[in-house]
Design a protein that fits this description.
Number of helices: 7
Strand content: 25-35%
Oligomer: single chain
Radius of gyration: 22 Å
Helix content: 10-25%
């Protein structure tokens, strides 16, 4: 559920524009965050719960992207003139590098880029960069291979990353739907900023001539189509390995997170299935709202806290609840089917709050849950009442009742079996 609870660009596939059924399917399939949800009449049964991912428009073919890059003018005469935007603790920024991006001729070659000003503490923190595979199949796919560069206050280079910083990884189903609605692969790397990093004031995301000459080998073994309502991507099974060219354009995500220990979201159950641990709140309906930098906003109560109260709690802590969004999905929690139409994704937070028609909080989702077993296997061992409740190509969902009204929901990646997100649903009737 990530993180990235920002809305995505609406997919405007010409084939869907003339078919009402596909338009309705695309509207219903509005996955976001990383917590699986059940959508009305949707197949497969487990999709995504969150802040409404909107499918992006069709990406340019590799040849067209390369031609556009070759024709792109250089924006600036020196590094001092590069346009920058702020990057704060807890931020995740996803963007396309391409025809609408500025280009600059670095010492390593011309490149599209994005530049950010870095926070001057608190340290330590890390910046994670992800670049996603673009294309409908491996034969025609391409990827932007990033290079990260930091600058001092006078825009002099402090350090840069090498190719070894980035590794090819399997992208999660939810993550892929958020970013490209495409193939399940990404390049990922990070930079750590320890104490003493105050001289590094800016971060530049770019690529180089040498990287553009390379390719990334991707195994096609086990690749299967990524299916979503109204949209399907096919992957050829004839080749055991594909060599994907590095492109000057692509889809990139940058996140900045503190390295300090995270604050627990809410009470968790132990292996008996329903009792809270001694170091956790004894009432599972109490959840803790916090910002991505670890700052606690306050306690919220499922089934009771209303929108006005939640807004006051956030404002009292110097934060914001944010703008109201519309949720069109129903969610099965235990034996109850929730249909919360009112959604809030507080700025600077990796959490989402869902309220019913009466304005009561009935679903609380965290895209960076803490104090839970890191794998699905350990989760099932710890929570005796846990049961798998749904599965997609890239993730599966587990639910465990904490009391007659509250159900804990967790989502794990299928390939790595690692925890992606967790949430608490309130299944009793709100008075």
């Amino acid at each position: 559920m990530n993180r990235l609870f920002t809305s995505r660009r609406q997919r405007t596939d010409a084939s869907a524009s003339g078919q009402p059924e596909l338009r309705r399917a695309a509207a219903v399939a509005s996955p976001a965050g990383r917590l699986a949800m059940r959508l009305r009449r949707a197949v497969p049964p487990l999709l995504v719960l969150g802040a409404g991912i909107l499918f992006q428009g069709c990406a340019k073919p590799y040849g067209a992207a390369l031609r556009q890059y070759n024709e792109a003018p250089v924006c600036c005469a020196s590094l001092a003139e590069l346009p920058v935007e702020p990057l704060h603790l807890g931020d995740t920024k996803s963007f396309n590098l391409g025809g609408n991006s500025p280009a600059y001729r670095f010492t390593t070659g011309k490149s599209y880029f994005r530049a950010f000003s870095l926070p001057q503490g608190p340290y330590p923190y890390k910046v994670t960069a992800r670049s996603f595979l673009i294309g409908d199949d491996l034969k025609t796919a391409y990827i932007f291979f990033p290079k990260l560069m930091t600058l001092d206050e006078n825009r002099r280079v402090i350090r840069t990353t090498g190719p070894e910083t980035f590794t090819l990884q399997q992208a999660g189903y939810i993550e892929t739907m958020e970013q490209t609605a495409g193939l399940l692969h990404k390049l990922e790397g990070e930079l750590i900023f320890p104490d003493g990093s105050k001289g590094e004031r800016y971060l530049v995301v770019m690529t180089t001539d040498d990287l553009l000459m390379g390719m990334t080998a991707i195994s096609a073994a086990g690749e299967v189509p990524l299916l979503t309502p109204g949209y399907a991507i096919t992957v050829s099974g004839k080749r055991s390995e594909a060599h994907v060219p590095h492109a000057p354009a692509g889809r990139v995500s940058i996140s900045l997170a503190p390295l300090a220990a995270e604050t627990p979201v809410a009470g968790t159950a132990n292996a008996t299935g329903g009792r809270a641990e001694k170091d956790a709140p004894p009432r599972p309906e109490i959840v803790t709202a916090r910002l991505a930098n670890g700052k606690i906003v306050g306690a919220l109560e499922l089934g009771k806290t209303d929108i006005d109260s939640a807004r006051q709690i956030f404002e009292k802590a110097g934060a914001m609840l944010g703008e109201e969004r519309q949720n069109a999905a129903s969610i099965t929690v235990g034996t109850a089917v929730l249909a919360p139409k009112r959604l809030f994704a507080p700025p600077g937070s990796l959490q989402q709050l869902y309220f019913d028609d009466n304005g009561a909080l009935v679903l609380f989702v965290d895209g960076a849950p803490a104090n839970f077993p890191p794998t699905g296997k350990e989760f099932l061992q710890r929570f005796s009442g846990a049961r798998e409740s749904g599965r997609t190509l890239g993730s599966y969902e587990v639910q465990v009742p904490l009391d007659p009204c509250v159900t804990l929901v967790a989502v794990f990646r299928t390939v790595s079996d690692t925890l992606e997100s967790a949430g608490y649903g309130y299944g009793c009737r709100v008075k």
